[in-house]
Amino acid sequence: MSRNPDPRWDIRDGAHVDVVVVGMGAAGCAAALDAHDAGARVIVLEKTGVAEAGGNTRVSGGGWFHHDDPEQAANYLRALCGDRELPESIVQVWAHGTREVSAWMQALDVRVGPHGHYNATGAEYPELPGSECYGGLHCVEGVLGRGRLFDTFEKALRERGIEVRYETAADRLTTDPASGAVTGIVTATGEHIRASGGVVLATGGFEGDPTLVREHLGLHDVPVWGSTAATGDGLRMAQRVGADVWHMDNMMAVNGITEPGSRHGHFAMFVYSRGLIWVDGSGARFVDEFVPSGHGQALIDGRYVLHPHRPMWVVFDEKTRAAGPISGSADVLPVGWNVLMNEYRWSADNSTEIDAGWILRGDTLEELAAATGLPADRLGDTVAEYNAACAAGVDGRFGRSAATLVPLLEPPFYAYHSGPMLAWTNGGPRRDEHARVLDTDGAVIDGLYAAGTVSSTFSWAKDGGFHIADAIVFGRIAGEHAALRAR
Known about the structure:
Elements: E1 16-22, H1 26-37, E2 42-45, H2 55-59, E3 64-65, H3 70-81, H4 88-99, H5 101-106, E4 112-114, H6 116-121, E5 137-140, H7 148-159, E6 163-165, E7 170-175, E8 182-187, E9 192-201, H8 210-217, H9 233-240, E10 245-246, E11 251-254, E12 256-258, E13 265-267, E14 276-279, E15 297-300, E16 303-306, E17 312-317, H10 318-323, H11 337-341, H12 351-355, E18 360-362, H13 365-372, H14 376-392, E19 413-418, E20 421-425, E21 428-429, E22 436-438, E23 444-450, H15 466-485
Parallel strand pairs: 1-2, 1-9, 2-6, 9-23
Antiparallel strand pairs: 3-5, 4-5, 7-8, 8-9, 10-21, 11-20, 12-13, 14-17, 15-16, 17-19, 18-19, 22-23
Helix pairs in contact: 1-7, 1-15, 3-4, 4-15, 13-14
């Protein structure tokens, strides 16, 4: 491996480095750090500027899944996959690697601790085998959100002298014409950077690209919770050199509300009142709105399905409107682009958002139907049926818990449209247990790696903190493997 004693060596156009990392989220930072610590010369290409770097990691809770039992963690992951089985080699590497994340983070000279609330709640799928392994979320300083995890990574990169090229989008991979191995990358400005060890794609998902979202998830013009820079760049680059794909129809979506014309949405939490229903375009309810769910899936009619998975109108009444803000600010849940990056603070009684037209209003259900375009008769019948279920304490249609059956009785009435809001996607280039990208024949594409949401491990259901843990584990693996390949 070629080395330079000065970690702040100058990388010039056309230079030959050991490892190129594309993306500066958790996976990219982990890859760069472990590649550097293995002796490699590393450069990180970050699509956005300094103020927005880090992708979804920057605005995430920043907590990772912790456990001390790889055997049960493997059982849990297998159960979460259901009939979408993963290769056992990946299951084992994931189960053992996630156990080491907290120790690795502590080695970055930060204090790591459990987050009290999320450690108390336990696994999101307690009915599944292996769920007892779930040790909750560990976070930097034991505190959720506010960019602490990204700040830790950025500091570690800086201290090691690893160069980060901001506002540098990757355009395409270069390959050896004889072997097909990836040899480097060309940026959007035409700069060619050669990589003797390999290129690590850590570009995030494709939630920021409406075309890919429509093609693979069947959703149209939905807002996103995190960075809109996640536009499938790594997916496209990998496919151009023959990569296979996996998990393309899997996602994490939530009930979200959006300012008209904005690409970013707000998480609708409704922590002060459960007086609401979800209706489809016909004005009918279609699901238990408060079914216990994990990070994207819920057990409905005996199957784990995406939840929410379709557009809907969220309808509530004056009592719920006045109970408190339906979306949390940073003092409640310090995550999400609008909360952390745009510093938006939701009004205490939702009046600001109603006045701005984010939430529609009607003095009667008929007026609300006219404002939303929903059929008035069907909407009225739906609310009446729901209110009757509340009075009886039994939701015969969808089995909603009696504790959440709060009637919609007090006018005026309100509604907003949820796309739903897309937090992140899970699909991308297929990879093996060494984070090496595989082609459509299942063969390794030498010199090409993928980690993080660009190529999530999770074929179906996933629990809290899984994505950050997965990104760190396979980012580290990718960086170290690429560094060793350069020798």
